Hints:
heterodimer; A: alpha+beta; Serine Threonine Protein Phosphatase 5, Tetratricopeptide repeat; SH3 type barrels; 9 helices; B: alpha+beta; Immunoglobulin-like; 5-stranded antiparallel sheet; about 25% helix; about 35% strand; elongated
Amino acid sequence: MKKLFLLLMFFLLWPQPAKAVVNDEGRVNTFFAAGRAAYTQGNYAQAIQAYENILAAGRASGPVYYNLANAYFRHGQLGRAILNYQRAARLMPRDKDLKFNFKYARTQVRAPAAGEIHPLLKIYQRFRDDYTPAELAGAAIALLGIMFGVHLFLLYSGQSLRRYGAGFAAGLFVLALLCFTFFNKTAMLSSAAVVLNEGKALFEPRDSATAHFTVYPGETVRFVDAQGAWAKIQRADDNLGWVNESLVAKVGDRE
Amino acid sequence: MRKIFGIILLILMMTWRAYAGDISVTAEVDRNQVQLGEALNLTIRVNGTQNMATPQLPAIDGFDMQGVNSSQNFSFVNGKTDSSIAFNYSLLAKKTGTLQIPAFTLDLNGKQYATTAIPVTVQNAPVVNNTATAAASTASAQPQAAMKLEDRIFVRPEIPNGEHFLNEAIPLKITLYVNDLPVRDIQKPQIEAPGFKLGDFAPTRQSQEVINGLRFDTVEFNTVVYPTRAGTLTLGPMQIAFQILTRRQANRPPGFDNSFFSDDFFNQFFNGYDSHPANAAIKPVQLNIAALPDKAPAGFKGAVGKYEFKAQVSPAAVKVGDPITLKMQVSGDGDVTAVELPVPQESVDFKVYEPQIKFENGIKRLEQVLIPKTENVKATPAFSFGYFNPATKQYETITQGPFPLTVSKSDQNSNFKMIAAAPGSGASVPIEVKDELGEDIIFLKENPGRLSPIGAELSGLDFVLVMILEIVLWAAGIFYIRYQRRLSTDSAFARKLRAPLRARQGLQKAKLLLSQAKDKEFYDVLFQTLQEYLVGKFHLPAGAMNAAEVGAALGKVKEAPAILDDIQRVWDHCEQARYASTLLSGQDRQESFERLAKIIDRLERLDP
């Protein structure tokens, strides 16, 4: 027991990682301030570099991606702007500024509009988009914990579970919804990609293949498959095509 | 080539023949008897040439020239060519009686050619019998004296007598009188009215009126004129444009004139009707317009007439900064569209917004938002509307308010809301103004927020593992609760569970006594430990414990005989220690202790 306690204390009080965090935060704050200053002066390339330095240091946050997206937008790189707005949305999905800018940036995209979706599906999508996977998972875990806790309490106090059957059924429904949304969102994020530059999507993964459709910067597509330097993508209108891998960037990729 | 030459030669010969031939001029009418308001055709035909302009005829007494057209004729028969041009003049009969189309003189190539005069009789009778186009007239059947067209269709204005004032609404009625004439497309009167503002025409009224024994169809045009300056003003001339219908005569083949086909039915079938534009004019009317008296009241802003003015505000209880809607309306017999309502201006008490003014159904309405600036405001200002009443020839004033208000402190120290009219709502509900500005992205975030390592996001596997952990904990909880419940309800289970614990405690105590060489106490503890263990382990009655009971509890366990033997030995040593403790050596005590420990260990392993 004593050994276990000492081992725990060793890990808790080990000073080295704490120092590293402090150093990282200091660098990040420096880069962040530099990016803001460059952006304010209209030097967007420099601002981009400053924010990219933060990501290169292995640290990220919603505001970092948001500011980087703004800098790309101002610099005229619509594709990268939308990519980083989407990355920011993974971390702070309910941020109003982000929603506004993202919506505005999307109006600049020359992509074909997706078809009409059912109003119920639209409500579900809004719910899904407003929460991060961690929040959905946390809510599901908390809900399950509460349900188990209530069950154990009822068991301990000798009360009948039948009285609370409706509550448990509702809880199970919400739990199922949360779990489904979590897996749906993680799957969606892992396959979402953004077109960085205008190009042609081909029928086959070779240079001489026939062009199928044009992709435009900022267009959000689904990354279906990869083959060598080719990426198979699916457009909003369900058309599939092969593009050079450098033409798209996955939202979930680490840069 | 020869053919072309021949054609050119032929044309030249024809032209030469045309110029060189004899020229003659004739005038003719399609009929000598027409009815008042009917048109006849006068044809002036020039034979021997086609190269001439349309002759301009002088005015013909009793006729109104409606239009002219021309037609050319050319014939080539047996080498002889004839050419002519005919000018057809449409003449509308304007008065009854025996009239004459005079002789005309035409100048052609320096020579004078004269036509002969043509007598025409214009009768006062129905112009057409067609029931679809001609009004049935009782007057037409009566013998009448010679009438002009102006006597059959004319216009009369009606303006109230008396003194008129500047800006007063003066009703003007213009009536078109039509006696037994087919008139169509009657236009609204055109009025020249310098110094007047003309109102809109009310819907026309049609009726009949008998004048001098003749029944007239009447069309009334009612409007209002507003003099815009004082002095003697001229209203008019006024005129009404319309179309008069006349029967078109069909050109029947020779020989059909008095035949079956001249029947009325065929007349109606074959003959159409021509419409001729005409108008009826009225001479100007002069009006004396008086200026308004001096010493106008404070609320007077030029309104003249008899008016009603109302105002109201709502709500009466508001907070500072909240909007109050002021509504006013004015109606009356004057120029309501031009009246100015007493619009409140910005003051120390109220912030005001642009009023919304509408005019409909003769009522001018105003809605305006007032916002009290302080809680010291107790009432709105009074709203006074002044006007000059021409009937009484006096200024009159209607005052509404002041309206009491209860203004309390605002909940928040916010600035005044921007208020504007909701589109199409008549401004009854104040809304926040949305500036029409361009769109752009919102500026940067000021701090980097909570930084996390890239890729340190919860994966699906993590989520599943945590959920499984929760399920395990839940299952453990259920097990624990059930275990505790059994402990509290099943005494045998509880004693059996506690037996080894208490036995270990007894062994520790015995070990201590063994080391202290307290023989008697050692065996007492040893016996008690063995007894309690066996009673607890096998749920035996404490007083009835013996080897047979323990053997039965062990059942058919393979090691039962050995265990029973050990129990018996420990038991014997304990009995011996009570009565002859000196016979037991230290080795015996150690052996008894170890044996008891071994018994407990083996029974715990076997868990029978």
